Amino acid sequence: MAEKPNIKGRPPRKEEAFIREKYDESFSAQGELMDNVAKQLLTLELAIPGLYATALKLVSGKDGGVPVSGHLSWAFYAWLFSLVCVVIAITPRPYTVDLEDYASIRDFFARSARWKYAFILASVSAFVFGLIQLILDLVS
Asked: Could you tell me if residue 121 is left (phi over 0), alpha (psi between -120 and 50 degrees) or otherwise beta?
C-alpha cells in the first residue's frame, strides 16, 4: 500500500489570509447586493407606472377617457411582468446545503446570486421594453 506523499507548505501570511477573508465576504454578500438592487428596482417600477397613470388621469379630466392603444397596453403588461420578476427575485428560496462541505456552501451563495441576477435582468429588460412602448405611444 502506497503512503500518502508528505506535502510541505507554509501557513498563509497575514496579508494572504486577509485577502482570502475579504474575498469570501464579498462572494457571500452577492445575494444581499442583488436584494438591494431588486428593492431599488421595485421602488422605481412602482413609481413610473403610477406617475404615468396619474398623469393620464389628470390630462383626461374628471369625466374624460384616454384611448388605450396597443403600445400603452404593452407598456403596462411589461411593467406588470417586471414587477412579478423582481418580487420573485426578492422572495427567499430554500436550498439544501451541507455545512461540512465548503464547496456546498460556496455553491449555495453562487446559485442564490445567479437566481436573483436572472430575475433582475428579466425585470430590467421588461421595464425598459415598457418604457419603449410608452415612448412609441407618446409619439404615435
From this structure: alpha
Q: Which of 58, 61, 25, 45 is nearest to 119 (CA)?
A: 45
The residue with cell 374624460 is: 64
The answer to whether residue 81 sits within a structural domain is: yes
DSSP-derived secondary structure letter, 11: P
The pLDDT of residue 66: 67
**pLDDT tens-digit series, residues 72-115:** 899 999 999 999 999 999 998 888 888 888 788 888 888 888 99
Residue 121, phi then psi, degrees to nearest 5: -65, -45
Count of structural domains, the chain = 1
Is the residue at 12 inside a domain? no
Rounded Cα distance between 137 and 140, Å, is 5
Q: How far, CA to CA in Å, does 77 sit from each of 13, 52, 60, 80, 86?
A: 56, 14, 21, 5, 14
Dist CA 97 CA 118 (whole Å): 21
